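To the team - heme C complex, inputs and output below.
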Amino acid sequence: MKTSLFIIISAILLIKIITRVETGSQQVDQLTGVQLYTKYCLTCHQADGNGVRGMFPPLAGNAKITGPSTDIIRIVLFGLEGPITVNERDYNQPMPPQGYLNDNQIADILCYVRSNWGNMAQPVTADEVAKARKLGKLTN
Ligand code: HEC
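Output:
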């Protein structure tokens, strides 16, 4: 009798834990592009996409951001190291890889980045992210 009660209580607790974990991951997936950007990119690239002069390059008014999507997807997934020049300013800090984000999340972030602050470029799809993930890190 005591054993069966114990088993029932354990089962209920287990179900509760599983439900909580599932709801948790759903909530993460439901974040929109702007929310994901705020959480994962804003500290460096800033709310207005202008970055920090000499430290973090701008994503606003940067031709590379609105160009073909493959390179920028690879940068977000695997990071970037080495000197770059954006709008005649030099940058040379490592960009940390963000590959723990899933394909949908990265597509949503880049859709946001490519259609705000005056940027106007084609959306990025999860399929494009999946393909770029296979290409590995971009070297410059
Ligand atoms: C810790 C700071 C930091 C965070 C967080 C960060 N970045 Fe960066 N990012 C950088 C730095 C620094 C560079 C420049 C790398 C270099 O000089 O080689 C860069 C470069 C880039 C570039 C390439 C710009 C160019 O003109 O070549 C893109 C695209 C980019 N970041 C997008 C993002 C996105 C999207 C996120 C969020 C998912 C993000 N970054 C998060 C610091 C950061």
